[in-house]
């Protein structure tokens, strides 16, 4: 009898800036077949696109080089394939750069794939397409639009795997698809077998935030204790060809994998649990049960999937004006009263100057930033006024933070620790596009 | 009793929406959560922070409720004025919700 095929996948990053050491540990000691790095948040590609406009050789993940230098040698010696969306707005440049790094590390004959085709800017129809969020047509934003990237499914990665790529760098691909693709490839699953695709998608969803399923983002300091969080390990999924799988981690790493950590991650960023929409399948989370089969090993049962929407979500990035943020602290006697007085003064002055904002928020923050000896008799011992406003122009934003700054000599007594910040806002809205219109493209580089 | 005594929670974000899970530590407490933690009570407890409607999904096999909250982030993660643009801290606030087990 042929022994049952088992695949082990590690998750090496849950976001662009994630820790690198746990990923290296996984590659070295995890007995892995694949390591996946999920590094794209909603807005990342729009920011990366702006970078690419400045320099056509950039627009990929800022930690790509550091990650590759830390991981590639171990990937080769342990025969671990690497899949990541670190290509961001420029998978071709990312793959080229990775080939150069591999050569510098003395790693030859590596096949590095760039998977792209997610950039659908040329396909936008400004008059007929409308944003899911605002309901307005794209034409409202006109030339403010920076980028439009479709969430692609497994298809491009599958092509690269079939062509024998060792490293695959994509643009926008749905997070769980990064994990599902190697499963379809290894187990030869049918693209119409929705229950199996659903299982692989649930695996991907549990893994995509790396440390978050291993007790990261879980400890509450009192009731939910996590051991050795400082050395938090990243997760491993072990899966068989029938789609049954468990989540685990390296024995000597910190953190924990329990039904509770898995449940929090399972429902993270989920809306209707019976219909989790991805480009590959509508996954069903609603009958999942979890069982701790041994310490730090949780088996996942009942994951499934049912159909396909035929649509892809497209994130459209656009220039959305400016954000102004200014803060000042009041401490000791009547701290709260002075904070409140400051708010009234700022409101009055903004109105008097006719300083137009799209939205404005006044917060009062604080515990012990002013005096380290905490005195619970003074309640509150400090407040930090935060004024945040949305403006159309940079000039208006600058005027606003400067107006808050004038509280020094023109406001309540003893305000201190002013800070001012003006940032450009790059925002995201979404549209839907027919899946058939988005054709994945793959190019290869050799080291 | 407060919700934190029987449940844990995590917030996720998408655009201007958040989802907040409420998960029983012990699945035997799930019926209490199922009965007491209604969308109306959650909306009342979180007050003006959540501007839109709250939709509630039960996931009995996990002993969990998932709340999907519209207009929760003052325009969405990428353009929100909130200090916590993702609404990640909302889950811990929700755990402070009082649960009256007598009525």
TrEMBL record, chain A:
Domain of life assignment: Bacteria
A Pfam family it matches: AtuA
Residue span, Acyclic terpene utilisation N-terminal domain: 7-443
Protein name: DUF1446 domain-containing protein
TrEMBL record, chain B:
InterPro entries assigned to the protein according to its UniProt record, in alphabetical order: AtuA-like_ferredoxin_dom
Domain named AtuA-like ferredoxin-fold: residues: 1-99
Domain of life: Bacteria
Protein name listed in UniProt: AtuA-like ferredoxin-fold domain-containing protein
């Amino acid at each position: 009898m042929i022994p049952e095929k088992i695949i082990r996948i590690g998750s090496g990053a849950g976001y662009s800036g994630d820790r690198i050491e746990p990923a290296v540990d996984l590659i070295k000691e995890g007995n892995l077949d694949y390591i996946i790095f999920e590094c794209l948040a909603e807005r990342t590609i729009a920011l990366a696109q702006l970078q690419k406009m400045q320099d056509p050789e950039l627009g990929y993940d800022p930690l790509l080089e550091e990650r590759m230098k830390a991981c590639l040698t171990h990937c080769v010696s342990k025969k671990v394939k690497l899949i990541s969306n670190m290509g961001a707005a420029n998978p071709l440049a990312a793959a080229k750069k990775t080939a150069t790094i591999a050569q510098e590390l003395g790693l030859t004959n590596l096949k590095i794939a760039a998977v792209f085709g997610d950039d659908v800017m040329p396909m936008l129809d400004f008059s007929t397409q409308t944003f899911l969020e605002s309901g307005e047509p794209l034409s409202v934003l006109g030339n403010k639009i920076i980028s439009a990237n479709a969430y692609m499914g497994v298809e491009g990665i599958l092509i690269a795997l079939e062509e024998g790529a060792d490293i695959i760098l994509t643009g926008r691909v749905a997070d769980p698809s990064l994990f599902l693709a190697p499963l379809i490839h290894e187990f030869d699953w049918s693209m119409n077998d929705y229950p199996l695709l659903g299982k692989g998608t649930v695996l991907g969803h549990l893994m995509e935030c790396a440390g978050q399923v291993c007790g990261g983002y879980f400890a509450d300091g009192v009731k939910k204790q996590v051991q050795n969080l400082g050395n938090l390990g990243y997760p491993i999924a072990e899966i068989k060809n029938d789609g049954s799988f468990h989540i685990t981690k390296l024995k000597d790493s910190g953190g924990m994998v329990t039904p509770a950590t898995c449940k929090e991650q399972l429902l993270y960023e989920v809306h209707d649990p019976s219909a989790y929409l991805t480009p590959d399948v509508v996954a069903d989370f609603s009958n999942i049960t979890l069982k701790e089969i041994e310490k730090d090993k949780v088996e996942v049962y009942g994951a499934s999937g049912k159909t396909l929407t035929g649509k892809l979500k497209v994130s459209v990035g656009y220039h959305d004006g400016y954000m102004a943020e200014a803060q000042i602290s009041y401490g000791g006697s009547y701290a709260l009263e002075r904070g409140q007085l400051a708010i009234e003064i700022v409101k009055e002055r903004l109105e008097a100057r006719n300083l137009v904002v799209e939205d404005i928020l006044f917060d009062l923050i604080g515990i012990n930033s002013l005096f380290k000896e905490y005195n619970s008799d003074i309640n509150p011992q400090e407040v930090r006024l935060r004024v945040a406003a949305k403006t159309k122009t940079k000039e208006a934003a600058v005027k606003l933070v400067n107006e808050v700054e004038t509280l020094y000599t023109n406001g309540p007594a003893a305000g201190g620790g002013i800070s001012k910040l003006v940032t450009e806002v790059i925002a995201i809205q979404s549209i839907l596009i027919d899946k058939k219109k988005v054709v994945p493209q793959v190019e290869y580089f050799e080291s | 009793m407060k919700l934190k005594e029987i449940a844990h929670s995590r917030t996720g974000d998408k655009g201007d929406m958040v989802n907040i899970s409420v998960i029983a530590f012990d699945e035997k407490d799930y019926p209490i959560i199922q009965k007491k933690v209604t969308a109306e009570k959650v909306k009342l407890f979180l007050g003006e922070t959540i501007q839109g409607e709250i939709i509630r999904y039960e996931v009995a096999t996990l002993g969990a409720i998932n709340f999907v909250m519209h207009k929760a982030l003052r325009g969405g993660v990428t353009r929100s004025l909130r200090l916590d643009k993702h609404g990640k801290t909302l889950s811990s606030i929700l755990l402070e919700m009082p649960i009256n087990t007598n009525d």
